[in-house]
């Protein structure tokens, strides 16, 4: 069993802050394997009827535990999962509880209490750079084409059947357990269209006719996709200028493998790598930066910056652009952003570099960073 060092360290740090940790992530992201790698942990799979019966009285269940850490895998299978975690947080503070699920704690039908102040949350995104090092692979083309779910990335070959089965399992197990989604064909059609257009601006009206649902239903379905971590909704960053977009989000698929599958990309072409790199950079950002601090930027003249990181109170904005080839970088969007928000670092993440390079592009100081070193850069600026 490969130890995913980054995630184990994050789990240890968060459990030192609170005794309840919600480990979220889509199915097959590796939540179970990660939890089973925890030393001295008692593991319970809530998909099993006998485990659900054991947890009908959470107080008795937790009182009987002798291990210092208890893992409740797929806890959303319980009738009232938030009650069990609330009891653990309030009445068993010495016991560390890791609960996993394929959604955020905002899933409406099951989680009546989001446990504000009682837990820490960790989102296990598809494989990041630290994982690739642990897995012993440096092939970024394979990471883009196959995606970052470990069984897909590390499998013997690219398997379209696995992608189709994942989508069916997502519908049958995650959605039907947590939400009342009535129109399967419309929902999956919306998901397919969003993944094909991943990284684009979102406008509900443009999807309504194709999916044969109302504009409001499109928005409701997007909310479900975001809650189940299958779509990443990125909001625009805006200052005081009326020329900056303030409301329209961009929507990304959670993983490059599904983007390639639904776009029917079997072999990467030069023009594929730039957009897919954007997804890998976002994935890395989600692993290192709180989600509420991530934005994109665009003005009404269509100048755009891929990602804006708001590091924290009193710290300058970090602007990040993604380019497969460093020589093709056009600083027009970045320059427009810095005219309105002058302070902060400018990063361009590329695939064709080996070492970081800081230089001037016009009036801007820009740091070009190889994607293979991007996580190191985040540690420096984040």
Question: Could you say which structural class the secondary elements and strand pairing correspond to?
Answer: alpha/beta
Q: What global shape is seen?
A: globular
Q: Count the helices. How many?
A: 16
In the predicted model, the low-confidence regions spanning at least 5 consecutive residues are: none
The gyration radius over C-alpha positions equals: 21 Å
pLDDT average, as an integer? 94
- Bin the strand percentage: 15-25%
Helix content: 40-55%
Largest sheet: 6 strands, mixed
Tell me how many strands there are. Answer: 14
Strand order of the largest sheet: 9-10-11-12-14-13
H-E string: HEHEHHEHEEHHHHHEHHEEHHEEEHEEEH
Distance between the termini: 31 Å
Please, could you describe this protein's structure?
The protein has 382 residues and is of the alpha/beta class. It has 16 helices and 14 strands. It has helices at residues 5-15, 31-36, 49-54, 58-63, 81-91, 129-135, 140-146, 150-153, 160-178, 184-196, 204-211, 215-227, 256-262, 270-288, 332-340, 374-381, and strands at residues 20-24, 41-45, 69-73, 96-101, 120-123, 200-201, 231-234, 250-253, 294-298, 304-309, 318-323, 346-350, 357-361, 364-370. The strands form three sheets. The chain has a six-stranded mixed beta sheet, sandwiched between helices. Strands 2-3-4-1-5 form a five-stranded parallel beta sheet. Helix 14 (270-288) crosses helix 16 (374-381). The longest helix is centred in the middle third of the chain and has 19 residues, at 160-178. The chain is globular, with a radius of gyration of 21 Å. The model has no long low-confidence stretch (mean pLDDT 94).
């Amino acid at each position: 069993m490969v130890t995913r060092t980054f995630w184990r360290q994050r789990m240890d740090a968060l459990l030192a802050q609170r005794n309840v940790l919600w480990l979220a992530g889509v199915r097959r992201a590796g939540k179970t394997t990660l939890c089973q790698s925890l030393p001295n942990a008692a593991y319970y799979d809530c998909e099993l009827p006998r485990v659900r019966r054991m947890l009908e009285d959470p107080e008795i269940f937790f009182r009987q535990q002798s291990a210092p850490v208890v893992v409740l895998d797929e806890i959303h299978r319980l009738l009232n999962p938030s009650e069990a975690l609330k009891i653990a947080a309030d009445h068993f503070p010495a016991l560390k509880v890791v609960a996993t699920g394929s959604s955020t704690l905002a899933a409406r039908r099951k989680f009546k209490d989001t446990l504000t102040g009682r837990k820490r949350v960790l989102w296990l995104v598809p494989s990041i750079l630290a994982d690739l090092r642990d897995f012993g692979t440096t092939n970024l083309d394979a990471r883009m084409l196959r995606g970052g779910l470990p069984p897909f990335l590390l499998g013997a070959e690219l398997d379209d059947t696995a992608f189709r089965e994942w989508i069916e399992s997502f519908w049958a197990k995650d959605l039907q357990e947590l939400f009342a989604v009535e129109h399967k064909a419309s929902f999956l059609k919306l998901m397919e269209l969003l993944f094909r257009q991943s990284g684009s601006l979102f406008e509900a009206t443009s999807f309504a006719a194709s999916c044969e649902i109302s504009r409001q239903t499109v928005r409701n379905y997007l909310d479900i996709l975001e809650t189940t971590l299958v779509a990443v909704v990125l909001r625009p960053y805006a200052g005081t200028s009326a020329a900056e977009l303030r409301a329209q989000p961009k929507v990304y698929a959670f993983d490059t493998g599904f983007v390639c599958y639904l776009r029917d990309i079997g072999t990467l072409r030069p023009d594929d790598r730039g957009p897919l790199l954007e997804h890998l950079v976002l994935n890395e950002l989600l692993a290192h930066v709180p989600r509420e601090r991530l934005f994109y930027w665009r003005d009404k003249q269509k100048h755009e910056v891929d990602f804006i990181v708001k590091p924290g109170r009193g710290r300058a904005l970090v602007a990040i652009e993604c380019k497969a080839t460093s020589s093709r970088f056009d600083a027009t969007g970045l320059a427009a952003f810095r005219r309105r928000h002058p302070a902060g670092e400018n990063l361009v993440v590329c695939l064709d570099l080996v070492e970081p390079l800081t230089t001037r592009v016009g009036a801007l100081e820009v740091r070009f960073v190889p994607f293979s070193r991007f996580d190191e850069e985040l540690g420096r600026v984040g």
